[in-house]
Each structure stands twice: as C-alpha cells, then as structure tokens.
Amino acid sequence: KYKVLAEMFRSVDTIAGMLFNRAETITFAKVKQGVQDMMRKQFEERHVGQIKAVYPTSYRLRQEKNIPTFSSGVKKSDYQLTLEPVLGEDEKLCGRPHLSASRLLERRREFNRSLVNIVKQHHAAFLAGLTPPMVVPEDKLTRWHPRFNVDEVPDISPAELPRPPQEERVTTAQELLSTARGMMIPKMEKALANLALRSAEAGAGEPMVSKAPSPASTSSALKGVSQELLERIRAKEARKLQALMTRDAGQEERLTLLGRLPAMARVLRNVFVAEKKPALPLEVVCARMAESFPTQMTAGEMEKHLRLFAELLPDWVGIHAIRTDTYIKLDKNKDVGLVVERLTKVAKEAEAL
C-alpha cells in the first residue's frame, strides 16, 4: 500500500507539474481525474492527506472559490481544494516558478525516503517489543527482521486538510430538537426527544472493548526447560538476527558464494579428473564449471568462486599467474568429502557472524 501511495504521489506531481507550468489553478477535481486515468485506481482526498503527512512541504493546500470550472456539478461560487507545489526561490523560468523534470525526480525520491523512514519507525517499535528487545542503528540497517511483516504496517494517518467555511448545520436529533424547539407540533417534538434519549442510552451502554493483548501462555513444549537456558537461546537468536539485518551488500555476496562452494567442490574435482592434467588455464576451468554447475553463471562469476577456493583452501586449490596466462592447480589426492566438510563449516561460521 505504501508503493501504491508512492505511485499516486508521482502521478499527482506529474499532473500538478503540467498544470502549474501552464499557470493553471490546480484543483483536486482535476488531479483526481488525471490520477484515476493514469493508475486505474480510486483517488480520494484522504490520499492527499496521506501525501501531506508523508511529505508536509510538498504542497500548499487551500480552499478557494471563484475558480473557472467546466464541470456541470461544480459551481464557480463553490469552494474547491487547490494544490500548489512548494518550490525554492531559484526554481524559476522566464521570471515565474517552474516545476522542472529534475525537481520532480528529486521530490519523488524525497517522498520515497520518507516512506522508508516511516517503515523504519514501525520496525524499530517491533524490535523493541521482542524478547529480548533489539536495537539496530538506522544507518546500519540493510534488511527487515525476518518476522517483521512489512506488508501489514499500519496505514498512514492522513494530515488534516483545509475545509471550506461551513454554515451551521444540524447533525443529531438532540441538536435538531434544541434548534427547532417551539417551531414544530408537539407530536414531532416528542418523537425527536425519544430518539435523542435512545441514542444517548445506546452510547452509554456500549461495552468497552479491551485492546490489551492477552498474556501468551507458556508452550507445553518448554515446560521443564530452565529460564536461564531460554534466555541464552533468545539472546543468541537476537545476535544472529541483528547480524542479518546489518549486513552490507559485500557481506551478502560473500555469504552467497560460500553457500555454493560445498556443492561446487565436487564439480571442480570432476573437471580435473576428466581433463587428466595437474593444472589447467583458469578460463578453461571457468567454462567447464559453468557448463556443469546447475546454477547458471557467467565465467566472471565462476572465477570469483574459484579464487575463493584458493583463499580458503590454499592446500587444495592454487591459482598461479605464469607470464600472460593464469593457471589453476588442484590436489586430486585430497578426500573431497573432507573438503566439503571444511567448506560447510566455514559457511556456517560466516552465517553466524
């Protein structure tokens, strides 16, 4: 739903930019029709309120009347919600403010950043409610907690929009009774009094629903387990999840490479057994491995794995530059089962960091 709102903001900005640059008054009615035509989704005033809540400095909102209109359902004397993009003093073309394409892109990025920050706030509250609580600095956060359901974050509360001046109007039976007392026949006055009384009783008798969550009962599977052991397990799990949420792209790539090495070790040995040579050109080995390994990879991606083999197991794989060529050498006498065990252990240790 946040992605939909981001796309709505982009559509609103596109339409508002065209109208603004033509010096037209941007009314909600014009924007609504344009957004619905572009997105094929309903666009309401509450969406404008949500946009204002996410990016308060995006638009100035006003209620104005005496705006020329070609709609039969809107009179010129009616108040209409208008939007005006907020621009800097230097954003002018031919002496008047201008909403350029680069500024539209900048505004879109700012809106997306604000949306992500809102999700981060919900994520921080989720982490604080865990047992034990977790705190992850925002500048180090690279992914959400595995149990954080990002698709169920609460809707953004719309900001209050300007409203047109309203004449006094009656909204309840009690108000109608107070306003019209003495102006109606006794029978009608009595009926309104009974209605007001019933409404008040219904409101007073409505039970209050408690929103406090019921305490979670201890699972029968955990009965007999010491509390100290449970706390140690939870603390270990929390450290593991915190490491997961703060990995950067380089660490994530290395973990992916390490995860493939155990299966790739057997393929690499089979290549050398089939070729019956102690050393092979690196590019030849990359090509043979790419043909044999089930996951499709380029020669460059395969070379990263081979160099990681040489880094982790220099006693099994060696890479040597000889003149203008690079060769890879493998010790075929080593037990490949033991090699796979060592690689699996390294991958698990890296995952736990």
Automatic annotation (TrEMBL):
Q: Where is the CDT1 Geminin-binding domain?
A: 1-163
Supply one GO CC term from the record: nuclear body
InterPro entries listed in its UniProt record: Cdt1 (IPR045173), Cdt1_C (IPR032054), Cdt1_C_WH_dom_sf (IPR038090), CDT1_Gemini-bd-like (IPR014939), WH_DNA-bd_sf (IPR036390)
Q: Which GO-annotated molecular functions does the record name?
A: chromatin binding; DNA binding; DNA polymerase binding
A Pfam family of this chain: CDT1_C
Keyword Cell cycle assigned: yes
Q: Which domain of life is it from?
A: Eukaryota
Q: Which SUPFAM superfamilies match?
A: Winged helix' DNA-binding domain
Keyword annotations of the record? Cell cycle
According to its UniProt entry, the protein's GO biological process terms are: attachment of mitotic spindle microtubules to kinetochore; DNA replication checkpoint signaling; DNA replication preinitiation complex assembly; negative regulation of DNA-templated DNA replication; positive regulation of DNA-templated DNA replication; regulation of DNA-templated DNA replication initiation; response to sorbitol
Per the record, the similarity remark reads: Belongs to the Cdt1 family.
Record protein name field: Chromatin licensing and DNA replication factor 1
